[in-house]
Structure prediction request, 114 residues.
Amino acid sequence: VQLVESGGGLVQAEGSLRLSCVTSGFSFEAYVMNWYRQAPGKERELVASINHHDDITSYIDSVKGRFTISRDNAKNMVYLQMNSLKPEDTAVYYCNDRWATMTWGQGTQVTVSS
Prediction:
């Protein structure tokens, strides 16, 4: 199993980024997939979730209306479109399955400046 995140960077507040996670080594279409993040000095938290068929999503309150999770089962990839970014969104972002059972990837750093 391999999870490889990309797409992070440094962006000003109110900017946008699109994160990607390419996966391999498991039956991607059978798994609910999540995006998580870990800010400096804080525990990792769940940010967004998407079901197998790309038609049910959920988000933590702080990102609702700003972030959109999606997936492409043909490409074994999951995405996170992040708009109207805020400094408090600064964190390392990771993808994993619903119960975070897979070995974590290296994550992708998102830094939002005010």
